[in-house]
Amino acid sequence: MATFDDIKVDISVVLGTSDMPVHQLLRMGRGAVIDLDVREDDDVRIYANNTLVARGQVVLLGERVGVSVTEVLNRSPEMRPMRTEGPL
Protein backbone atom coordinates (compact mmCIF):
# COMPACT_ATOMS: atom_id res chain seq x y z
CA MET A 1 0.00 0.00 0.00
CA ALA A 2 1.30 3.44 -0.92
CA THR A 3 2.10 5.93 1.83
CA PHE A 4 2.30 9.69 1.77
CA ASP A 5 4.77 9.96 4.65
CA ASP A 6 7.77 10.64 2.39
CA ILE A 7 6.16 13.18 0.05
CA LYS A 8 7.61 16.63 0.55
CA VAL A 9 5.60 19.77 -0.25
CA ASP A 10 7.13 23.24 -0.06
CA ILE A 11 4.51 25.64 1.36
CA SER A 12 5.02 29.38 0.83
CA VAL A 13 2.84 32.26 1.96
CA VAL A 14 3.15 35.59 0.16
CA LEU A 15 2.08 38.54 2.29
CA GLY A 16 2.58 41.10 -0.48
CA THR A 17 5.16 42.48 -2.86
CA SER A 18 7.39 45.52 -3.13
CA ASP A 19 9.70 46.90 -5.82
CA MET A 20 13.01 48.45 -4.82
CA PRO A 21 16.47 48.81 -6.29
CA VAL A 22 19.06 46.25 -5.17
CA HIS A 23 21.31 48.97 -3.70
CA GLN A 24 18.45 50.01 -1.38
CA LEU A 25 17.90 46.40 -0.30
CA LEU A 26 21.62 45.96 0.42
CA ARG A 27 21.64 49.05 2.64
CA MET A 28 18.84 47.75 4.87
CA GLY A 29 19.77 46.66 8.33
CA ARG A 30 18.19 44.66 11.07
CA GLY A 31 14.74 45.99 11.94
CA ALA A 32 14.23 47.71 8.58
CA VAL A 33 10.61 47.84 7.39
CA ILE A 34 9.61 47.12 3.80
CA ASP A 35 6.31 48.61 2.64
CA LEU A 36 4.13 46.04 0.86
CA ASP A 37 1.39 46.62 -1.71
CA VAL A 38 -1.38 45.25 0.54
CA ARG A 39 -3.53 46.32 3.46
CA GLU A 40 -3.64 44.61 6.84
CA ASP A 41 -6.91 42.80 6.11
CA ASP A 42 -6.03 41.62 2.56
CA ASP A 43 -5.77 37.90 1.89
CA VAL A 44 -2.35 36.29 1.61
CA ARG A 45 -1.51 33.88 -1.21
CA ILE A 46 -0.64 30.28 -0.30
CA TYR A 47 1.55 28.27 -2.67
CA ALA A 48 2.37 24.55 -2.70
CA ASN A 49 5.49 23.78 -4.75
CA ASN A 50 5.23 27.21 -6.42
CA THR A 51 1.59 26.66 -7.46
CA LEU A 52 -1.10 28.96 -6.05
CA VAL A 53 -3.48 26.66 -4.15
CA ALA A 54 -5.30 28.84 -1.61
CA ARG A 55 -5.83 32.21 0.01
CA GLY A 56 -5.89 32.99 3.70
CA GLN A 57 -5.63 35.47 6.54
CA VAL A 58 -2.70 36.00 8.90
CA VAL A 59 -3.61 35.10 12.50
CA LEU A 60 -1.74 35.47 15.78
CA LEU A 61 -1.50 32.32 17.93
CA GLY A 62 -0.07 33.60 21.18
CA GLU A 63 3.49 34.59 20.25
CA ARG A 64 3.36 32.69 16.96
CA VAL A 65 2.07 33.77 13.57
CA GLY A 66 -0.13 31.47 11.51
CA VAL A 67 -2.31 31.49 8.41
CA SER A 68 -6.00 30.60 8.39
CA VAL A 69 -7.07 29.20 5.01
CA THR A 70 -10.14 31.10 3.78
CA GLU A 71 -10.38 29.79 0.21
CA VAL A 72 -9.02 26.70 -1.52
CA LEU A 73 -8.63 27.37 -5.23
CA ASN A 74 -9.93 24.93 -7.82
CA ARG A 75 -7.35 23.88 -10.38
CA SER A 76 -8.30 23.37 -13.99
CA PRO A 77 -7.56 19.92 -15.49
CA GLU A 78 -4.71 21.49 -17.51
CA MET A 79 -2.97 22.54 -14.29
CA ARG A 80 -3.17 19.12 -12.61
CA PRO A 81 -0.16 16.82 -12.93
CA MET A 82 -0.56 13.88 -15.27
CA ARG A 83 -1.52 10.65 -13.55
CA THR A 84 0.79 7.74 -14.14
CA GLU A 85 -0.73 4.37 -14.99
CA GLY A 86 -1.09 1.80 -12.27
CA PRO A 87 -2.74 1.51 -8.88
CA LEU A 88 -2.55 4.29 -6.35
UniProtKB/TrEMBL annotation:
One Gene Ontology MF term: cytoskeletal motor activity
Which family does the record claim for this protein? Belongs to the FliN/MopA/SpaO family.
Any one Gene Ontology BP term: chemotaxis
Residues forming the Flagellar motor switch protein FliN-like C-terminal domain are: 5-73
Please state where this protein is localized. Answer: Cell membrane
Protein's name according to its UniProt entry: Flagellar motor switch protein FliN
The reply to whether Disulfide bond figures as a keyword in the UniProt entry is: no
A Gene Ontology cellular component where this protein is annotated is:
bacterial-type flagellum basal body
Task: Output the InterPro entries linked to this UniProt entry.
Answer: FliN-like_C, FliN/MopA/SpaO, FliN_T3SS_HrcQb, SpoA-like_sf
Q: Which UniProt keywords apply?
A: Cell membrane, Chemotaxis, Flagellar rotation, Membrane
How does the entry describe its membrane topology? Answer: Peripheral membrane protein
Species, as recorded: Roseibium aquae
Which Pfam family is an annotated match for this chain, by its short name? FliMN_C
